[in-house]
Design goal:
The structure holds 2 protein chains of 2 kinds. By secondary structure, chain A is an alpha/beta fold. Chain A has a domain of about 90 residues: Nucleotidyltransferase, domain 5 (2-Layer Sandwich). Helices cover about 30% and strands about 20% of the residues of chain A. In chain A, the strands form 2 sheets. In chain A, strands 5-4-3-6-7 form a 5-stranded mixed beta sheet. In chain A, a hairpin with a 5-residue loop joins strand 3 and strand 4. By secondary structure, chain B is an alpha/beta fold. Chain B has a domain of about 80 residues: 2-Layer Sandwich (Nucleotidyltransferase, domain 5). Chain B is built from 3 helices and 6 strands; from the N terminus they run H-E-E-E-E-H-E-H-E. The termini of chain B are far apart. The chains are: A alpha/beta, B alpha/beta. Chains A and B meet through helix 1, strand 2, helix 3, strand 7 and strand 8 of A and helix 1, strand 1 and helix 3 of B.
Chain lengths: ~130, ~140
Protein backbone atom coordinates (compact mmCIF):
# COMPACT_ATOMS: atom_id res chain seq x y z
CA UNK A 1 0.00 0.00 0.00
CA UNK A 2 1.36 3.35 -0.88
CA UNK A 3 0.26 6.29 1.16
CA UNK A 4 -0.28 9.21 -1.05
CA UNK A 5 2.16 12.01 -0.30
CA UNK A 6 0.62 15.21 0.84
CA UNK A 7 1.41 18.11 -1.33
CA UNK A 8 3.49 20.48 0.76
CA UNK A 9 2.76 24.13 0.31
CA UNK A 10 5.89 26.12 -0.22
CA UNK A 11 6.01 29.42 1.60
CA UNK A 12 9.46 30.89 1.28
CA UNK A 13 10.39 33.72 3.61
CA UNK A 14 11.60 36.69 1.73
CA UNK A 15 15.08 37.59 2.84
CA UNK A 16 15.20 40.77 0.83
CA UNK A 17 14.63 42.94 3.86
CA UNK A 18 17.34 41.19 5.86
CA UNK A 19 20.03 43.78 5.03
CA UNK A 20 17.68 46.54 6.10
CA UNK A 21 17.11 44.95 9.47
CA UNK A 22 20.81 44.43 9.95
CA UNK A 23 21.45 48.02 8.95
CA UNK A 24 19.02 49.18 11.57
CA UNK A 25 20.78 47.14 14.23
CA UNK A 26 24.14 48.36 13.00
CA UNK A 27 23.12 51.98 13.22
CA UNK A 28 21.77 51.44 16.72
CA UNK A 29 25.04 49.97 17.94
CA UNK A 30 27.12 52.58 16.13
CA UNK A 31 25.23 55.35 17.85
CA UNK A 32 25.18 53.80 21.29
CA UNK A 33 28.80 52.69 21.37
CA UNK A 34 31.08 54.59 23.69
CA UNK A 35 34.63 53.41 23.32
CA UNK A 36 36.47 52.70 26.53
CA UNK A 37 39.20 55.27 26.90
CA UNK A 38 40.66 54.18 30.17
CA UNK A 39 41.61 51.12 32.13
CA UNK A 40 41.97 52.60 35.56
CA UNK A 41 43.53 50.85 38.50
CA UNK A 42 41.97 47.97 40.40
CA UNK A 43 39.70 49.19 43.18
CA UNK A 44 36.94 47.53 45.16
CA UNK A 45 34.10 49.98 45.22
CA UNK A 46 31.62 49.76 48.08
CA UNK A 47 28.03 48.69 47.60
CA UNK A 48 24.93 50.76 48.29
CA UNK A 49 21.19 50.28 48.06
CA UNK A 50 20.65 53.70 46.52
CA UNK A 51 23.14 53.23 43.71
CA UNK A 52 21.22 54.71 40.81
CA UNK A 53 22.01 54.65 37.16
CA UNK A 54 23.89 57.71 36.00
CA UNK A 55 22.73 59.39 32.84
CA UNK A 56 25.10 61.00 30.41
CA UNK A 57 27.84 58.47 30.01
CA UNK A 58 29.75 60.78 27.70
CA UNK A 59 30.14 63.44 30.38
CA UNK A 60 31.65 61.13 32.97
CA UNK A 61 35.29 61.38 33.95
CA UNK A 62 36.54 58.56 36.08
CA UNK A 63 38.79 59.18 39.04
CA UNK A 64 40.23 56.03 40.57
CA UNK A 65 41.66 56.13 44.05
CA UNK A 66 43.03 53.02 45.70
CA UNK A 67 43.87 52.13 49.28
CA UNK A 68 47.36 53.60 49.01
CA UNK A 69 45.94 56.99 48.03
CA UNK A 70 47.14 56.71 44.46
CA UNK A 71 45.00 58.76 42.11
CA UNK A 72 44.42 57.75 38.52
CA UNK A 73 42.58 59.89 36.01
CA UNK A 74 42.53 59.03 32.29
CA UNK A 75 45.16 56.34 32.85
CA UNK A 76 47.58 58.83 34.33
CA UNK A 77 48.82 58.61 37.87
CA UNK A 78 48.55 62.08 39.30
CA UNK A 79 49.06 63.76 42.63
CA UNK A 80 46.38 65.55 44.58
CA UNK A 81 47.93 68.89 43.57
CA UNK A 82 47.54 68.12 39.88
CA UNK A 83 43.95 66.98 40.26
CA UNK A 84 42.47 70.44 40.63
CA UNK A 85 44.07 71.91 37.50
CA UNK A 86 43.27 68.79 35.52
CA UNK A 87 39.62 68.92 36.51
CA UNK A 88 39.47 72.65 35.82
CA UNK A 89 40.72 71.95 32.30
CA UNK A 90 38.07 69.26 31.86
CA UNK A 91 35.45 71.61 33.15
CA UNK A 92 36.35 74.24 30.57
CA UNK A 93 36.22 71.60 27.85
CA UNK A 94 32.86 70.30 28.98
CA UNK A 95 30.85 72.29 31.53
CA UNK A 96 28.55 69.32 32.09
CA UNK A 97 31.33 67.11 33.37
CA UNK A 98 30.46 64.56 36.03
CA UNK A 99 33.29 63.13 38.08
CA UNK A 100 32.77 59.53 39.05
CA UNK A 101 34.82 58.79 42.14
CA UNK A 102 35.83 55.17 42.14
CA UNK A 103 37.35 54.99 45.58
CA UNK A 104 38.39 51.76 47.23
CA UNK A 105 36.08 50.84 50.09
CA UNK A 106 38.98 50.44 52.47
CA UNK A 107 40.51 53.83 51.76
CA UNK A 108 40.48 56.45 54.47
CA UNK A 109 38.28 59.50 54.29
CA UNK A 110 41.21 61.92 54.53
CA UNK A 111 41.80 61.40 50.80
CA UNK A 112 38.11 61.92 50.08
CA UNK A 113 38.22 65.28 51.80
CA UNK A 114 41.28 66.35 49.81
CA UNK A 115 39.72 65.22 46.55
CA UNK A 116 36.44 67.00 47.23
CA UNK A 117 38.29 70.21 48.07
CA UNK A 118 40.25 69.92 44.83
CA UNK A 119 37.02 69.44 42.88
CA UNK A 120 35.43 72.43 44.57
CA UNK A 121 38.52 74.42 43.63
CA UNK A 122 38.05 73.35 40.02
CA UNK A 123 34.31 74.02 40.24
CA UNK A 124 33.63 70.48 39.00
CA UNK A 125 30.97 69.96 41.59
CA UNK A 126 28.81 67.28 40.05
CA UNK A 127 30.14 64.04 41.41
CA UNK A 128 29.11 60.44 41.72
CA UNK A 129 30.26 58.12 44.45
CA UNK A 130 30.58 54.99 42.35
CA UNK A 131 28.95 52.08 44.11
CA UNK A 132 27.74 48.68 43.11
CA UNK A 133 24.10 47.87 43.78
CA UNK A 134 23.45 45.68 46.80
CA UNK B 1 22.14 59.17 -38.43
CA UNK B 2 24.42 57.42 -36.14
CA UNK B 3 23.16 54.78 -33.96
CA UNK B 4 23.75 55.44 -30.32
CA UNK B 5 26.18 52.92 -28.96
CA UNK B 6 24.46 50.76 -26.45
CA UNK B 7 25.70 51.65 -23.07
CA UNK B 8 26.43 48.77 -20.83
CA UNK B 9 25.12 49.24 -17.40
CA UNK B 10 27.44 47.63 -14.92
CA UNK B 11 25.50 45.38 -12.68
CA UNK B 12 26.38 45.62 -9.06
CA UNK B 13 25.92 42.61 -6.94
CA UNK B 14 24.29 43.64 -3.71
CA UNK B 15 24.09 40.22 -2.19
CA UNK B 16 27.36 40.64 -0.32
CA UNK B 17 26.11 43.87 1.20
CA UNK B 18 24.38 41.93 3.93
CA UNK B 19 27.62 40.12 4.76
CA UNK B 20 29.58 43.35 5.04
CA UNK B 21 26.91 44.85 7.24
CA UNK B 22 26.90 41.73 9.37
CA UNK B 23 30.62 42.06 9.86
CA UNK B 24 30.30 45.67 10.95
CA UNK B 25 27.40 44.78 13.19
CA UNK B 26 29.39 42.09 14.93
CA UNK B 27 32.27 44.52 15.41
CA UNK B 28 30.04 47.05 17.15
CA UNK B 29 28.28 44.36 19.13
CA UNK B 30 31.59 43.22 20.52
CA UNK B 31 32.98 46.67 21.27
CA UNK B 32 29.85 48.08 22.89
CA UNK B 33 30.00 48.17 26.64
CA UNK B 34 26.57 48.18 28.15
CA UNK B 35 28.03 48.76 31.56
CA UNK B 36 25.52 50.86 33.35
CA UNK B 37 27.38 53.29 35.52
CA UNK B 38 25.90 53.20 38.99
CA UNK B 39 26.52 55.28 42.04
CA UNK B 40 25.23 57.88 44.47
CA UNK B 41 24.83 61.29 42.90
CA UNK B 42 26.03 64.28 44.82
CA UNK B 43 26.57 67.94 44.11
CA UNK B 44 29.36 69.52 46.09
CA UNK B 45 28.80 72.95 47.58
CA UNK B 46 30.59 76.06 46.37
CA UNK B 47 34.10 76.77 47.51
CA UNK B 48 34.63 76.98 51.26
CA UNK B 49 34.74 80.78 51.53
CA UNK B 50 31.25 80.99 50.05
CA UNK B 51 29.57 78.45 52.28
CA UNK B 52 27.18 79.52 54.94
CA UNK B 53 26.96 78.16 58.40
CA UNK B 54 23.83 76.13 58.88
CA UNK B 55 21.93 78.05 61.53
CA UNK B 56 18.40 76.97 60.90
CA UNK B 57 16.48 74.59 63.08
CA UNK B 58 16.04 70.97 62.23
CA UNK B 59 19.70 70.07 61.93
CA UNK B 60 20.62 66.51 62.77
CA UNK B 61 24.29 65.72 63.20
CA UNK B 62 25.84 62.46 62.17
CA UNK B 63 29.43 61.89 63.19
CA UNK B 64 31.66 59.06 62.05
CA UNK B 65 34.92 58.51 63.87
CA UNK B 66 38.16 56.63 63.20
CA UNK B 67 36.81 53.47 64.78
CA UNK B 68 33.74 53.74 62.55
CA UNK B 69 31.37 54.41 65.41
CA UNK B 70 28.37 56.57 64.57
CA UNK B 71 26.90 59.32 66.68
CA UNK B 72 23.49 60.61 65.65
CA UNK B 73 21.10 63.21 66.98
CA UNK B 74 20.29 66.86 67.32
CA UNK B 75 23.03 69.15 68.54
CA UNK B 76 24.05 68.24 72.06
CA UNK B 77 21.81 65.19 72.08
CA UNK B 78 23.89 62.86 69.93
CA UNK B 79 23.97 59.25 70.92
CA UNK B 80 25.84 56.25 69.60
CA UNK B 81 23.92 54.14 67.12
CA UNK B 82 24.61 51.18 64.92
CA UNK B 83 25.23 52.20 61.32
CA UNK B 84 22.33 50.00 60.19
CA UNK B 85 19.90 51.89 62.44
CA UNK B 86 20.66 55.30 60.98
CA UNK B 87 17.80 55.16 58.49
CA UNK B 88 15.14 54.34 61.10
CA UNK B 89 16.46 56.91 63.54
CA UNK B 90 16.44 59.57 60.85
CA UNK B 91 12.88 58.75 59.87
CA UNK B 92 11.76 59.17 63.47
CA UNK B 93 13.66 62.43 63.83
CA UNK B 94 12.35 63.63 60.49
CA UNK B 95 8.79 63.15 61.64
CA UNK B 96 9.50 64.91 64.94
CA UNK B 97 11.05 67.87 63.18
CA UNK B 98 8.26 68.02 60.61
CA UNK B 99 5.75 68.13 63.46
CA UNK B 100 7.46 71.31 64.70
CA UNK B 101 7.10 72.85 61.27
CA UNK B 102 10.75 72.62 60.22
CA UNK B 103 12.37 70.44 57.63
CA UNK B 104 15.24 68.13 58.42
CA UNK B 105 18.82 68.88 57.40
CA UNK B 106 21.40 66.20 57.95
CA UNK B 107 24.94 67.31 58.66
CA UNK B 108 27.52 64.60 58.10
CA UNK B 109 30.91 64.95 59.69
CA UNK B 110 33.56 62.32 59.14
CA UNK B 111 37.01 62.10 60.66
CA UNK B 112 39.98 61.69 58.30
CA UNK B 113 40.78 58.26 59.66
CA UNK B 114 37.38 56.73 59.05
CA UNK B 115 36.83 54.26 56.25
CA UNK B 116 35.30 55.26 52.94
CA UNK B 117 32.95 52.31 52.75
CA UNK B 118 31.35 53.32 56.04
CA UNK B 119 30.90 56.84 54.73
CA UNK B 120 29.08 55.42 51.70
CA UNK B 121 27.01 53.18 53.97
CA UNK B 122 26.08 56.25 56.01
CA UNK B 123 25.20 58.26 52.92
CA UNK B 124 23.18 55.33 51.63
CA UNK B 125 21.22 55.17 54.88
CA UNK B 126 20.53 58.91 54.73
CA UNK B 127 19.34 58.60 51.13
CA UNK B 128 17.17 55.65 52.11
CA UNK B 129 15.48 57.87 54.69
CA UNK B 130 14.44 60.08 51.75
CA UNK B 131 16.40 63.07 53.00
CA UNK B 132 17.62 65.39 50.30
CA UNK B 133 19.14 68.17 52.33
CA UNK B 134 22.57 66.95 53.27
CA UNK B 135 25.40 69.10 54.51
CA UNK B 136 28.99 67.97 54.56
CA UNK B 137 30.69 69.53 57.53
CA UNK B 138 34.35 70.32 57.10
Amino acid sequence: MIASKKKSVKAPISTASMPDIIFMLLIFFMVSTVFIEHRGIPVTIPSAVNANKIEGKRNITYCYIDMDKRINVDDKMITIKELSSMMYFKRTQNPRVIVSLKIDGNAKNSILDQVQKALQEADARRIVYAASPK
Amino acid sequence: MLKKPERKVGDFDASSMADITFLLLIFFLVTTTISSEKGIKFVLPQKADQTEGVKVKGVVNILLNDDDDVLLGKKGKEEEVNIQQVRDRLQILSREIAAQGDSIIVSIKVTPGSTYKNYIELLDQVKSAKINRISLAQ
